[in-house]
Design brief:
18 strands; 5-stranded antiparallel sheet
Length: about 650
């Protein structure tokens, strides 16, 4: 019976006598992998699945060939390198290639049979699994030589463990007999085969990049032989001449594609390139209603002989049409610009004035004499600096001129103020040929109206956000600030506290002393509240009627209690008489709530709810006191405010 191992009694003398046969087995495996490297480019043209199936068949064939070339050490026990192709198929071919390779090799080993058949098939499955593990390990990147080395090491370890654990092999003392040469040769075959496959992948990638770049270039690319027949073309060439595939153009010449006079002209120019070896650069061609700019260079072999030419043709139809339109409209545009109310100037790509009307010069009274055809933008800007025409120019004059010159050729809208207070709008637009057109308008009246309107809007906004009686933030502005500041505290994960203040028995105060006195009382309370907070971020707002709200970002419940106590003391110091109150003076009840993190992120309005509940409890428990609640349901100690 055949097996994949042979134990040699008496040491390694038989192994040493068969190194030549081992070398032949190793050569066959490497040859099979090299053949795949040679023909893999052909399979790249087919589908991904077909390529992997082909690789799996090659690897399986290499494994079968290794079995057929196995070295016999004992009747029925052989040694070979079948495991290396299976591991390589798994790593470089993935599940599809591994499945085909393993199926072929295992089926062949099953047909052969033998005492170690089961152990051999198990070890083959392990080798395939190791290869697949390597494939999934490197699936997000390309395998490297170190990955092949790790694959080889893993395969060696698996072989040693198989010889040490599988019963048939253990009974035959295979590990002691031929463990080293078997493991070493399979590892060596894996490294050599993996190196060949790595180089193959690298060459295929480089070739794919070159082919893709040639095929998908936006220009028309082609290569011709010495008789001006196409050897290869890119996809743009097939679209230009209305072919379905590039293969249909191979072997054709210009005589097959266009009129004879034009074909003869192009043939003559190309033959001159081939005969003289002098490139043809930016030659104009008119083909299929398109204007083309062609460059053709000779191709030489290693001996320097011209064997053909390569051509690059760019479609300049649109550019040619634009140039023609620009030439035709230049005079008309000049006349139109001269009669416009706005100032217009056109700068070339280097910053020199090509055209400007009188209105453009008049728009800049101090530097107008410098704004003439042929003047450079940097000289004009220097004149602006010298005359002081534009206020606010930085001390680094040269840097400002350099930056302004560099920004000329960009689409932009800007408004500048002159020395006399007038305003100019400068709208710059960049044309396709690199020229920049600047349109200057006098917007002094518009700008003055805009400034006045903005001031009015700011005043209205201030009025809309301010309580008319107390001068503090009103309910609407408070709601906006509350949403903004609670979101900020949630992001920073800092505490946020809120005080809700209500004047005790305020209706009775109004009924007793009259509404004017009530309004004055509200002003005094708001003053005490403002004096009790010190940070710009702290906001005091009139919440409605005799209710006030204070929110304190980045403030704990303890800090909020301190603010509340300060307010209570200040209000007590005012000692506003209130005969309708059980305290004989104006007092206030205060509810406090504090939250952080999740509450602020998910339901910041809980702060208002809990502060309002605390205020309610403070009023029901006797008024003139401070009570704190938290959104998690805790109730803090109550303090009298007076």
């Amino acid at each position: 019976m055949m097996s994949w191992l042979h134990v040699v009694e008496g040491g390694y003398s038989a192994v040493n006598g068969n190194w030549t046969q081992f070398g032949g087995n190793l050569s066959f495996v490497c040859l099979a992998i090299s053949l795949w490297a040679l023909f893999s480019i052909e399979f790249q043209r087919r589908s991904f699945r077909q390529e992997k199936v082909a690789f799996g068949i090659i690897a399986g064939g290499a494994s079968i060939g290794s079995i057929l070339l196995a070295v016999e050490f004992h009747p029925g026990i052989y040694i070979d390198l079948r495991f290396s192709p299976l591991a390589l198929a798994g790593m470089f071919g993935g599940p599809i290639a591994a499945a085909f390779a393993a199926a072929l090799a295992m089926a062949f080993r099953f047909v052969i049979g033998g005492t170690a058949m089961v152990d051999g098939i198990i070890t083959m499955a392990i080798a395939t699994g190791i290869g697949l593990a390597g494939h999934f390990w490197t699936r997000k990147r390309s395998p490297e030589l170190k990955d092949v080395a790790l694959l080889s090491l893993a395969l060696g370890v698996a072989l040693v463990l198989s010889m040490a654990l599988l019963p048939t092999l253990v009974n035959a003392h295979v590990l002691a007999g031929v463990g080293f040469p078997l493991t070493a040769l399979n590892c060596l075959a894996t490294v050599l085969g993996g190196f060949v496959l790595l180089k193959t992948q690298q060459w295929e990638l480089e070739r794919s990049i070159l082919v893709t770049a040639f095929s998908q270039s936006p220009d028309y690319l082609y290569v011709k032989d010495r008789n001006s027949r196409f050897i290869t073309v890119n996809e743009n060439m097939t679209r230009l001449f209305r072919f379905r595939t590039t293969a249909e153009m191979i072997g054709l010449s210009d005589f097959n594609l266009m009129s004879r006079p034009l074909a003869e002209e192009l043939y003559y120019l190309e033959q001159q390139v081939i005969d003289t070896g002098v490139p043809l650069i930016d030659s104009t061609e008119h083909i299929e209603g398109r204007f083309l700019l062609a460059s053709k260079v000779p191709l030489r072999d290693k001996q320097g002989r011209v064997i053909g030419l390569a051509g690059v043709t760019r479609d300049v139809t649109e550019r040619t049409a634009l140039e023609r339109e620009l030439r035709e409209s230049k005079n008309l545009l000049s006349h139109a610009m001269a009669g416009m109310s706005d100032g217009i100037a056109m700068y070339d790509s280097k910053g020199f004035i090509l055209f400007c009307n009188e209105q453009y010069r008049n728009a800049f009274p101090l530097s107008g004499e410098a704004r003439v055809v042929g003047a450079h933008i940097s000289d004009i800007l220097r004149r602006v600096v010298e005359t002081g025409e534009r206020p606010g120019i930085p001390d680094d004059v040269d840097g400002w001129i350099k930056a302004a010159t560099a920004s000329l050729h960009s689409n932009k809208d800007e408004e500048v103020q002159l020395h006399n207070g007038d305003w100019r709008s400068i709208r710059t637009r960049l044309a396709e040929d690199g020229t920049a057109m600047a349109v200057v308008s006098d917007i002094t009246a518009t700008k003055q109206a805009e400034i006045a309107l903005r001031l009015s809007a700011e005043q209205l906004k201030s009025l809309a956000e301010t309580d008319g009686l107390t001068g503090m933030v009103n309910r609407r502005a408070f709601d906006e600030a509350f949403a903004r500041e609670t979101a900020g505290s949630a992001r920073r994960n800092t505490p946020f506290s809120l005080l809700m203040v209500d004047i005790d028995r305020f209706k009775a105060y109004n009924d007793t002393y009259g509404h004017p006195a009530g309004d004055q009382c509200l002003r005094v309370v708001s003053k005490c509240l403002r004096q009790s907070v010190s940070r710009p971020a702290d906001i005091v707002a009139r919440y409605g009627g005799e209710e006030f709200v204070v929110f304190l970002p980045d403030t704990s419940a303890k800090g909020a209690m301190i603010v509340a106590e300060q307010f209570a003391r200040r209000l007590a110091q005012e000692n506003i008489a209130h005969s309708g109150s059980e305290f004989a003076r104006v007092t206030a009840s205060i509810g406090i709530s504090c939250a952080t993190g999740a509450v602020l992120r998910t339901n910041p309005n809980r702060l208002l709810t809990e502060a309002d509940a605390a205020l309610y409890d403070a009023k029901t428990q006797g008024r003139n006191r401070i009570l704190a609640h938290s959104p998690n349901g805790e109730r803090h100690a109550m303090k009298e405010a007076g």
